[in-house]
Fold this sequence. Notes:
Layout: H1 3-28, H2 31-58
Helix pairs in contact: 1-2
Amino acid sequence: MSKIKKIIKVLWIIIAIIATASIISLIILPQWKGIFLAGSGGFLILNILIAMFFLKHNYKN
């Protein structure tokens, strides 16, 4: 497995963990705190996806 595939795999695992935590915080926490943490998690996921896009297109083997 090449180095870039390992990095991408780890980033997908991190995205899954963040998404799970965001959904749980939305359900468990009071109204505005849950919405704030879920929105922050979504923003972080978006940034990781953008980083993955640039990694795939700019990484040299």
